[in-house]
Amino acid sequence: MKIKYLTAGESHGPELTAIIEGIPSNFEVSKNYIDEFLARRQKSLGSGGRMNIEKDEVLITSGVINNLSTGGPIAIKIINKDWKNWKDKEIEPFVVPRPGHADLVGTFKYQHDDIRLSLERASARETAIRCAIGAICHQILNQLGVEVVGYVSSIGEQKLENINLEDIGQIKKLVDESEVSCPDKETSELMINEILKARKKKDTLGGSITLIAKNFPAGCGSYVHFDRKLDAKLASSMMSVQSVKAVEVGSGIEASKDFGTAVQDQIVLNEQNVERITNNLGGFEGGMSTGEPIMITSYLKPISTTLTPIKSVDLASQKVTETTYERSDTCAVPRAVPIFESVISIDLLNSLIENTGGDNKEVIFKRINEIKDITLDSFNLANKTWSMRYENE
Ligand code: EPS
Q1: What is the pTM assigned to this prediction?
Q2: CB-based contact 149:37 (threshold 8 Å)
Q3: Which of 10, 40, 50 gets mutated to test ligand 1 (max ligand atoms within 8 A of its CB)?
Q4: C-alpha of residue 44 to centroid of ligand 1, in Å
Q5: What ranges do the domains of the chain cover?
Q6: What does the pLDDT look like over 10-21, one tens digit per residue?
């Protein structure tokens, strides 16, 4: 990995912190761009009370000077406004683990003397700082002509069936206008109702977020080792976002039900260009990008903290009991879109840097322009019979 990062911080501690290594020099990095990502992460229906307290803003303390990346490590932080409410507070014991959260296993693994010590780091508050890291990568990809956009593709049972992927700008605009980050007005209404119903029932809801990345060059990633497959890397990163329980590349789930002739993205010629007539495989073959739009969907389970109590065990009294309510969101899916755009941007930028080997904007630009679309001139086939020999035989 060329880009590496570490984050630190507790949900109700003083701040979230990150150091990012491997961002090439001379790219524009604007605080406003990052703050817009952070603001989008806070918006929307389904958010809980915490979002009325925080107004996230990034502080950049190293690696970006005069709005340009220096090539050195970038240090950033986000102050937790809620800290002032927790500082010196007498905290009630937390002894009943919430099923679905890291509470039970985290407390067992780290032998914490209060469940809150696990909760503090496991909380999805951590996604604020990852969102900021990825927003840096997203704006660099943008400068390289790669567009990354995400949208809510389902909430509960309500699914977005069809979407025109041609105009990324239009998708972004519609997502921004929707209270649930879905680029279709009718489906948005259905999703809003679904969340309101869940809230009324004192329950929580999950859903899915689809990401599209356009103009990403062909040939990034590799088939030669499991850990060089770019689609596998993306799936692993998506799974690392809190609540994600499944990841789908392209139309992977439907593809598993259909015949091969219907699923493969057939190859055709458009003058000199070698093109596809569909994109069922979501922009990947053999762990490598094909040059078609990358399409990846992450499925999030409903949030674990429910207003309605569910069965658990009181680890102090050692009796079967029910969970008690902690402040939380009803449905975090609508506000999670920028988190996924960020997380995929880190991996895509990393892969581009690996492929171009560049340390600075100028070299990356030059090399990226040399990675052409796949055309009939891209190949050097011998087109004659040959045999396979190894010298030791
Ligand atoms: C979360 C619980 C809630 C969420 C939180 C994730 O926070 P709190 O415990 O302070 O009410 O709002 O998400 C964030 C704080 C955030 O910034 O996204 C949890 O338990 O995972």
Answers
A1: 0.97
A2: no
A3: 50
A4: 14
A5: 4-378
A6: 999 999 999 999
